[in-house]
Design a protein that fits this description.
The complex is a heterodimer. Chain A is built from three helices and four strands; from the N terminus they run βαβαββα. By secondary structure, chain A is of the alpha+beta class. Chain B is an all-alpha fold. In chain B, helix 4 crosses helix 8 and helix 7 packs parallel to helix 13. The radius of gyration of chain B is 22 Å and the shape is globular. Classes of the chains: A alpha+beta, B mainly alpha. The interface between A and B is medium-sized, with 20 and 26 residues.
Chain lengths: ~80, ~350
Protein backbone atom coordinates (compact mmCIF):
# COMPACT_ATOMS: atom_id res chain seq x y z
CA UNK A 1 0.00 0.00 0.00
CA UNK A 2 1.21 3.48 -0.83
CA UNK A 3 0.12 6.47 1.20
CA UNK A 4 0.78 9.95 -0.10
CA UNK A 5 0.48 13.13 1.93
CA UNK A 6 -0.04 16.07 -0.40
CA UNK A 7 1.18 19.33 1.03
CA UNK A 8 3.05 22.48 0.15
CA UNK A 9 4.88 22.73 3.45
CA UNK A 10 2.21 23.95 5.83
CA UNK A 11 2.27 22.93 9.49
CA UNK A 12 -0.92 20.88 9.07
CA UNK A 13 0.77 18.72 6.43
CA UNK A 14 3.58 17.80 8.84
CA UNK A 15 0.98 17.03 11.48
CA UNK A 16 -0.87 14.68 9.15
CA UNK A 17 2.35 12.89 8.21
CA UNK A 18 3.34 12.34 11.85
CA UNK A 19 -0.15 11.13 12.70
CA UNK A 20 -0.10 8.67 9.79
CA UNK A 21 3.28 7.24 10.79
CA UNK A 22 2.06 6.85 14.36
CA UNK A 23 -0.99 4.92 13.26
CA UNK A 24 1.03 2.63 11.02
CA UNK A 25 3.31 1.83 13.96
CA UNK A 26 0.34 1.20 16.27
CA UNK A 27 -1.57 -1.03 13.90
CA UNK A 28 1.45 -2.77 12.41
CA UNK A 29 0.16 -2.24 8.88
CA UNK A 30 2.99 -1.94 6.41
CA UNK A 31 2.80 0.89 3.93
CA UNK A 32 5.09 3.45 2.39
CA UNK A 33 4.42 7.05 3.35
CA UNK A 34 5.50 9.64 0.86
CA UNK A 35 5.26 13.39 1.18
CA UNK A 36 4.33 15.05 -2.10
CA UNK A 37 5.07 18.74 -2.42
CA UNK A 38 5.32 18.92 -6.21
CA UNK A 39 2.58 21.28 -7.35
CA UNK A 40 2.03 19.50 -10.68
CA UNK A 41 1.38 16.23 -8.89
CA UNK A 42 -0.93 17.82 -6.31
CA UNK A 43 -2.96 19.56 -8.99
CA UNK A 44 -2.90 16.33 -10.95
CA UNK A 45 -4.98 14.78 -8.20
CA UNK A 46 -7.44 17.65 -8.53
CA UNK A 47 -6.57 18.93 -5.07
CA UNK A 48 -6.63 22.69 -4.44
CA UNK A 49 -6.50 22.71 -0.68
CA UNK A 50 -3.76 20.99 1.29
CA UNK A 51 -3.15 18.78 3.20
CA UNK A 52 -4.69 15.88 1.34
CA UNK A 53 -4.57 12.20 2.20
CA UNK A 54 -4.12 9.77 -0.69
CA UNK A 55 -4.16 5.96 -0.50
CA UNK A 56 -3.08 4.03 -3.62
CA UNK A 57 -3.75 7.07 -5.83
CA UNK A 58 -7.25 7.57 -4.38
CA UNK A 59 -7.92 10.92 -2.67
CA UNK A 60 -9.53 10.24 0.72
CA UNK A 61 -9.54 13.63 2.47
CA UNK A 62 -8.85 17.19 1.31
CA UNK A 63 -8.00 20.41 3.11
CA UNK A 64 -8.02 19.08 6.65
CA UNK A 65 -6.27 16.77 9.06
CA UNK A 66 -8.57 13.75 9.46
CA UNK A 67 -9.02 12.22 12.90
CA UNK A 68 -7.11 9.11 13.92
CA UNK A 69 -10.17 6.88 13.48
CA UNK A 70 -10.77 8.24 10.00
CA UNK A 71 -7.20 7.59 8.94
CA UNK A 72 -7.44 4.04 10.27
CA UNK A 73 -10.56 3.52 8.20
CA UNK A 74 -8.91 4.94 5.07
CA UNK A 75 -5.98 2.57 5.48
CA UNK A 76 -8.03 -0.51 6.28
CA UNK A 77 -10.49 -0.15 3.41
CA UNK B 1 -30.40 38.47 24.42
CA UNK B 2 -27.51 40.73 23.43
CA UNK B 3 -28.34 42.97 26.35
CA UNK B 4 -28.18 40.01 28.71
CA UNK B 5 -24.80 38.93 27.32
CA UNK B 6 -23.57 42.50 27.59
CA UNK B 7 -24.73 42.67 31.20
CA UNK B 8 -22.87 39.45 32.05
CA UNK B 9 -19.72 40.70 30.30
CA UNK B 10 -19.87 43.96 32.25
CA UNK B 11 -20.29 42.07 35.49
CA UNK B 12 -17.34 39.77 34.81
CA UNK B 13 -15.29 42.80 33.73
CA UNK B 14 -16.10 44.47 37.04
CA UNK B 15 -14.88 41.50 39.08
CA UNK B 16 -11.77 40.92 36.96
CA UNK B 17 -10.80 44.60 37.21
CA UNK B 18 -11.37 44.52 40.93
CA UNK B 19 -9.29 41.36 41.29
CA UNK B 20 -6.42 42.66 39.20
CA UNK B 21 -6.39 46.00 41.00
CA UNK B 22 -6.36 44.31 44.39
CA UNK B 23 -3.44 42.16 43.28
CA UNK B 24 -1.45 45.13 41.92
CA UNK B 25 -2.19 47.16 45.06
CA UNK B 26 -0.95 44.31 47.23
CA UNK B 27 2.29 43.99 45.22
CA UNK B 28 2.88 47.76 45.18
CA UNK B 29 2.28 48.05 48.94
CA UNK B 30 4.63 45.15 49.54
CA UNK B 31 7.30 46.95 47.54
CA UNK B 32 6.53 50.17 49.41
CA UNK B 33 5.47 52.01 46.25
CA UNK B 34 2.81 54.64 45.74
CA UNK B 35 -0.61 53.24 44.75
CA UNK B 36 -2.24 56.50 43.63
CA UNK B 37 -2.13 55.34 39.97
CA UNK B 38 -4.77 52.74 40.79
CA UNK B 39 -7.24 55.41 41.88
CA UNK B 40 -7.01 57.36 38.60
CA UNK B 41 -9.82 57.47 36.03
CA UNK B 42 -7.28 56.63 33.29
CA UNK B 43 -6.26 53.38 34.97
CA UNK B 44 -9.85 52.29 35.58
CA UNK B 45 -10.81 53.12 31.98
CA UNK B 46 -7.89 51.17 30.53
CA UNK B 47 -8.39 48.05 32.66
CA UNK B 48 -12.16 47.90 32.09
CA UNK B 49 -11.62 48.43 28.36
CA UNK B 50 -9.09 45.60 28.25
CA UNK B 51 -11.20 42.96 30.01
CA UNK B 52 -14.49 43.90 28.38
CA UNK B 53 -13.17 44.06 24.81
CA UNK B 54 -11.07 40.90 25.17
CA UNK B 55 -14.03 38.83 26.34
CA UNK B 56 -16.37 40.31 23.77
CA UNK B 57 -13.96 39.70 20.87
CA UNK B 58 -13.17 36.11 21.87
CA UNK B 59 -16.86 35.33 22.30
CA UNK B 60 -17.70 36.81 18.89
CA UNK B 61 -14.74 35.11 17.22
CA UNK B 62 -15.84 31.69 18.51
CA UNK B 63 -19.46 32.04 17.44
CA UNK B 64 -18.90 33.70 14.07
CA UNK B 65 -15.94 31.58 12.95
CA UNK B 66 -18.02 28.49 13.76
CA UNK B 67 -20.97 29.73 11.67
CA UNK B 68 -18.68 30.81 8.81
CA UNK B 69 -17.01 27.41 8.83
CA UNK B 70 -20.38 25.63 8.55
CA UNK B 71 -21.41 27.87 5.62
CA UNK B 72 -18.05 27.29 3.95
CA UNK B 73 -18.39 23.53 4.14
CA UNK B 74 -20.96 23.92 1.33
CA UNK B 75 -18.52 25.77 -0.93
CA UNK B 76 -15.32 23.78 -1.40
CA UNK B 77 -12.93 25.40 -3.93
CA UNK B 78 -13.62 22.51 -6.31
CA UNK B 79 -17.28 23.53 -6.50
CA UNK B 80 -16.46 27.24 -6.82
CA UNK B 81 -14.09 26.42 -9.66
CA UNK B 82 -16.81 24.50 -11.48
CA UNK B 83 -19.35 27.29 -10.96
CA UNK B 84 -16.97 29.90 -12.36
CA UNK B 85 -15.58 27.79 -15.19
CA UNK B 86 -18.83 26.70 -16.75
CA UNK B 87 -18.92 29.77 -18.91
CA UNK B 88 -22.34 31.04 -17.88
CA UNK B 89 -20.75 33.85 -15.96
CA UNK B 90 -18.47 35.57 -18.46
CA UNK B 91 -17.70 39.27 -18.34
CA UNK B 92 -18.79 41.60 -15.60
CA UNK B 93 -21.12 39.06 -13.98
CA UNK B 94 -18.22 36.64 -13.63
CA UNK B 95 -16.24 39.20 -11.61
CA UNK B 96 -19.17 39.88 -9.29
CA UNK B 97 -19.82 36.19 -8.84
CA UNK B 98 -16.14 35.45 -8.18
CA UNK B 99 -15.84 38.22 -5.59
CA UNK B 100 -18.94 36.93 -3.75
CA UNK B 101 -17.71 33.33 -3.86
CA UNK B 102 -14.39 34.59 -2.48
CA UNK B 103 -16.17 35.31 0.81
CA UNK B 104 -17.65 31.84 1.26
CA UNK B 105 -14.87 29.68 -0.19
CA UNK B 106 -12.27 28.70 2.39
CA UNK B 107 -8.91 30.08 1.37
CA UNK B 108 -5.50 30.70 2.85
CA UNK B 109 -2.51 32.23 1.14
CA UNK B 110 -0.73 28.86 1.31
CA UNK B 111 -3.27 27.46 -1.16
CA UNK B 112 -3.20 30.50 -3.48
CA UNK B 113 -1.05 28.69 -6.07
CA UNK B 114 -3.14 25.51 -6.44
CA UNK B 115 -6.34 27.58 -6.47
CA UNK B 116 -4.91 29.89 -9.15
CA UNK B 117 -3.76 26.98 -11.35
CA UNK B 118 -7.02 25.11 -10.77
CA UNK B 119 -9.14 28.09 -11.82
CA UNK B 120 -7.09 28.86 -14.94
CA UNK B 121 -7.11 25.20 -15.93
CA UNK B 122 -10.89 25.05 -15.54
CA UNK B 123 -11.22 27.91 -18.01
CA UNK B 124 -11.98 30.68 -15.53
CA UNK B 125 -10.83 33.97 -17.15
CA UNK B 126 -7.75 35.62 -15.61
CA UNK B 127 -9.62 38.73 -14.47
CA UNK B 128 -12.34 36.66 -12.79
CA UNK B 129 -9.67 34.55 -11.04
CA UNK B 130 -8.16 37.76 -9.68
CA UNK B 131 -11.52 38.98 -8.38
CA UNK B 132 -11.65 35.78 -6.35
CA UNK B 133 -8.02 35.98 -5.19
CA UNK B 134 -8.54 39.56 -3.98
CA UNK B 135 -11.85 39.21 -2.16
CA UNK B 136 -11.03 35.92 -0.47
CA UNK B 137 -8.29 37.15 1.92
CA UNK B 138 -9.64 40.71 2.20
CA UNK B 139 -13.17 39.88 3.31
CA UNK B 140 -12.13 37.39 5.98
CA UNK B 141 -13.97 36.36 9.12
CA UNK B 142 -11.37 37.56 11.64
CA UNK B 143 -11.30 41.09 10.20
CA UNK B 144 -15.10 41.14 10.12
CA UNK B 145 -15.45 40.09 13.77
CA UNK B 146 -12.90 42.65 14.90
CA UNK B 147 -14.63 45.41 12.91
CA UNK B 148 -18.10 44.40 14.04
CA UNK B 149 -17.09 44.03 17.68
CA UNK B 150 -15.10 47.25 17.92
CA UNK B 151 -16.65 49.59 15.33
CA UNK B 152 -20.19 48.25 15.00
CA UNK B 153 -22.00 46.47 12.17
CA UNK B 154 -22.27 49.52 9.92
CA UNK B 155 -18.51 49.87 9.54
CA UNK B 156 -18.15 46.10 9.12
CA UNK B 157 -20.73 46.17 6.32
CA UNK B 158 -19.00 49.15 4.72
CA UNK B 159 -15.76 47.19 4.77
CA UNK B 160 -17.40 44.19 3.03
CA UNK B 161 -18.96 46.39 0.33
CA UNK B 162 -15.70 48.28 -0.23
CA UNK B 163 -13.71 45.03 -0.35
CA UNK B 164 -16.09 43.48 -2.88
CA UNK B 165 -16.03 46.64 -5.00
CA UNK B 166 -12.23 46.63 -5.14
CA UNK B 167 -12.16 42.90 -5.97
CA UNK B 168 -14.70 43.32 -8.80
CA UNK B 169 -13.14 46.43 -10.34
CA UNK B 170 -9.49 45.34 -10.00
CA UNK B 171 -10.39 41.95 -11.52
CA UNK B 172 -12.19 43.64 -14.42
CA UNK B 173 -9.24 45.94 -15.15
CA UNK B 174 -6.80 43.02 -15.11
CA UNK B 175 -9.16 41.11 -17.41
CA UNK B 176 -9.39 44.02 -19.87
CA UNK B 177 -5.60 44.41 -19.98
CA UNK B 178 -5.16 40.93 -21.52
CA UNK B 179 -2.19 39.93 -19.43
CA UNK B 180 -2.53 36.18 -20.00
CA UNK B 181 0.99 36.03 -21.44
CA UNK B 182 2.40 37.23 -18.12
CA UNK B 183 1.26 34.09 -16.36
CA UNK B 184 4.10 31.57 -16.02
CA UNK B 185 3.92 29.21 -19.03
CA UNK B 186 3.91 25.99 -17.03
CA UNK B 187 0.53 26.95 -15.54
CA UNK B 188 -1.12 26.37 -18.93
CA UNK B 189 0.46 22.95 -19.37
CA UNK B 190 -0.79 21.46 -16.11
CA UNK B 191 -3.63 19.06 -16.42
CA UNK B 192 -5.90 19.08 -13.43
CA UNK B 193 -7.24 15.82 -12.10
CA UNK B 194 -10.95 15.47 -11.59
CA UNK B 195 -11.64 15.20 -7.92
CA UNK B 196 -14.92 13.84 -6.76
CA UNK B 197 -16.37 16.31 -4.27
CA UNK B 198 -16.79 14.53 -0.96
CA UNK B 199 -19.93 15.85 0.74
CA UNK B 200 -19.33 15.93 4.49
CA UNK B 201 -21.95 14.75 6.96
CA UNK B 202 -23.46 17.28 9.38
CA UNK B 203 -21.47 15.72 12.18
CA UNK B 204 -18.31 16.25 10.12
CA UNK B 205 -19.26 19.88 9.45
CA UNK B 206 -19.65 20.53 13.18
CA UNK B 207 -16.38 18.80 14.05
CA UNK B 208 -14.53 20.73 11.33
CA UNK B 209 -16.16 23.99 12.46
CA UNK B 210 -15.09 23.47 16.03
CA UNK B 211 -11.55 22.51 14.96
CA UNK B 212 -11.36 25.61 12.80
CA UNK B 213 -12.41 27.84 15.72
CA UNK B 214 -9.65 26.33 17.86
CA UNK B 215 -7.10 26.63 15.08
CA UNK B 216 -7.81 30.32 14.49
CA UNK B 217 -8.00 31.20 18.20
CA UNK B 218 -4.69 29.45 18.93
CA UNK B 219 -3.11 31.33 16.05
CA UNK B 220 -4.35 34.82 16.83
CA UNK B 221 -4.95 35.08 20.60
CA UNK B 222 -1.58 36.70 21.43
CA UNK B 223 -2.15 39.37 18.77
CA UNK B 224 -5.67 40.06 19.99
CA UNK B 225 -4.41 40.48 23.57
CA UNK B 226 -1.47 42.69 22.58
CA UNK B 227 -3.66 44.77 20.24
CA UNK B 228 -6.36 45.29 22.86
CA UNK B 229 -3.76 46.00 25.58
CA UNK B 230 -2.14 48.75 23.47
CA UNK B 231 -5.62 50.04 22.62
CA UNK B 232 -6.52 50.03 26.33
CA UNK B 233 -3.46 52.09 27.29
CA UNK B 234 -4.28 54.58 24.53
CA UNK B 235 -7.90 54.58 25.69
CA UNK B 236 -6.85 55.52 29.21
CA UNK B 237 -4.13 58.04 28.56
CA UNK B 238 -4.17 59.49 25.03
CA UNK B 239 -6.57 62.43 24.74
CA UNK B 240 -9.17 62.34 21.93
CA UNK B 241 -8.18 64.39 18.90
CA UNK B 242 -4.44 64.03 19.54
CA UNK B 243 -3.74 62.79 16.02
CA UNK B 244 -6.17 65.02 14.15
CA UNK B 245 -3.41 67.48 13.29
CA UNK B 246 -1.18 64.86 11.64
CA UNK B 247 -3.47 62.17 10.27
CA UNK B 248 -6.62 64.24 9.78
CA UNK B 249 -8.45 64.98 6.56
CA UNK B 250 -6.25 68.02 5.94
CA UNK B 251 -3.19 65.87 5.37
CA UNK B 252 -3.43 64.72 1.73
CA UNK B 253 -0.75 62.03 2.19
CA UNK B 254 -2.27 60.40 5.28
CA UNK B 255 -4.21 57.71 3.37
CA UNK B 256 -1.22 56.80 1.23
CA UNK B 257 1.15 56.57 4.19
CA UNK B 258 -1.40 54.49 6.13
CA UNK B 259 -1.61 52.01 3.24
CA UNK B 260 2.19 51.71 3.04
CA UNK B 261 2.39 51.02 6.79
CA UNK B 262 -0.32 48.38 6.44
CA UNK B 263 1.49 46.14 3.93
CA UNK B 264 4.07 44.58 6.30
CA UNK B 265 1.43 43.99 9.00
CA UNK B 266 0.19 40.99 7.06
CA UNK B 267 -2.79 38.99 8.28
CA UNK B 268 -2.69 40.73 11.58
CA UNK B 269 -6.15 42.17 11.44
CA UNK B 270 -6.58 40.73 14.94
CA UNK B 271 -3.79 42.81 16.41
CA UNK B 272 -4.15 45.99 14.36
CA UNK B 273 -7.89 46.67 14.46
CA UNK B 274 -8.09 47.41 18.24
CA UNK B 275 -5.27 49.93 17.77
CA UNK B 276 -6.96 51.41 14.69
CA UNK B 277 -10.11 51.90 16.73
CA UNK B 278 -8.17 54.05 19.17
CA UNK B 279 -6.47 55.89 16.30
CA UNK B 280 -9.89 56.93 14.99
CA UNK B 281 -10.79 58.21 18.44
CA UNK B 282 -7.58 60.23 18.39
CA UNK B 283 -8.63 61.88 15.15
CA UNK B 284 -7.78 59.54 12.27
CA UNK B 285 -10.66 59.78 9.76
CA UNK B 286 -12.66 56.61 9.05
CA UNK B 287 -11.63 56.44 5.37
CA UNK B 288 -7.96 56.45 6.27
CA UNK B 289 -8.59 53.79 8.92
CA UNK B 290 -10.50 51.55 6.49
CA UNK B 291 -7.81 51.92 3.81
CA UNK B 292 -5.20 50.97 6.40
CA UNK B 293 -7.10 47.84 7.41
CA UNK B 294 -7.58 46.82 3.79
CA UNK B 295 -3.88 47.09 3.09
CA UNK B 296 -3.24 44.92 6.16
CA UNK B 297 -5.52 42.13 4.90
CA UNK B 298 -5.24 42.39 1.11
CA UNK B 299 -1.62 43.29 0.39
CA UNK B 300 1.05 41.16 1.93
CA UNK B 301 4.64 40.31 1.16
CA UNK B 302 4.33 36.55 1.83
CA UNK B 303 1.35 36.29 -0.51
CA UNK B 304 3.20 38.17 -3.25
CA UNK B 305 6.14 35.79 -2.92
CA UNK B 306 3.73 32.85 -3.22
CA UNK B 307 1.95 34.38 -6.23
CA UNK B 308 5.31 34.98 -7.92
CA UNK B 309 5.37 31.20 -8.56
CA UNK B 310 2.54 31.57 -11.06
CA UNK B 311 2.78 35.23 -12.14
CA UNK B 312 5.61 36.86 -14.03
CA UNK B 313 6.99 40.01 -12.33
CA UNK B 314 5.10 42.30 -14.67
CA UNK B 315 1.67 40.87 -13.84
CA UNK B 316 2.54 40.79 -10.15
CA UNK B 317 3.50 44.49 -10.35
CA UNK B 318 0.24 45.31 -12.14
CA UNK B 319 -1.70 43.44 -9.45
CA UNK B 320 0.04 45.23 -6.56
CA UNK B 321 -0.23 48.59 -8.34
CA UNK B 322 -3.96 48.29 -9.02
CA UNK B 323 -4.62 47.12 -5.46
CA UNK B 324 -2.64 49.98 -3.91
CA UNK B 325 -4.31 52.61 -6.09
CA UNK B 326 -7.83 51.31 -5.49
CA UNK B 327 -7.36 51.03 -1.71
CA UNK B 328 -5.98 54.58 -1.56
CA UNK B 329 -8.88 55.84 -3.70
CA UNK B 330 -11.45 54.08 -1.48
CA UNK B 331 -9.78 55.72 1.53
CA UNK B 332 -10.10 59.20 0.02
CA UNK B 333 -13.65 58.51 -1.12
CA UNK B 334 -14.76 57.49 2.38
CA UNK B 335 -12.99 60.48 3.89
CA UNK B 336 -15.11 62.69 1.64
CA UNK B 337 -18.49 60.99 2.09
CA UNK B 338 -18.28 59.86 5.74
CA UNK B 339 -18.89 62.46 8.46
Amino acid sequence: MKIEILGTGCSKCDKLQKLTEEILKETGISATVEKVSDMQKIIGYGVMKTPAFVVDSKVKAVGRVPSKDEIKKFIQD
Amino acid sequence: MFLAIDWVLNLITHYLSYGLTTLIRWVLTLLGRNTSLLESVQYKGAVDFFFYDTMKIFLMLSVIIFIVSIIRSFFPPERTKKLLGEGKTRGFLGNIFAALLGIVTPFCSCSAVPVFIGFIEAGVPLGVTFSFLISSPMVNEVALVMLWGLFGWKIALLYIVAGLTIAIIAGMIIGKMHLEKYVEEYVYTIKMGDLEIITPTWKQRFIDGWNYVLEILIKIWPYVLIGIAIGAVMHGWAPAGLLAKYAGKDNPFAVFIAVLIGVPLYSNAAGTIPIVKELTRLGMPMGTALAFMMSVTALSLPEMIILRKVLKPRLLAVFVGIMTISIVLIGYLFNIILP
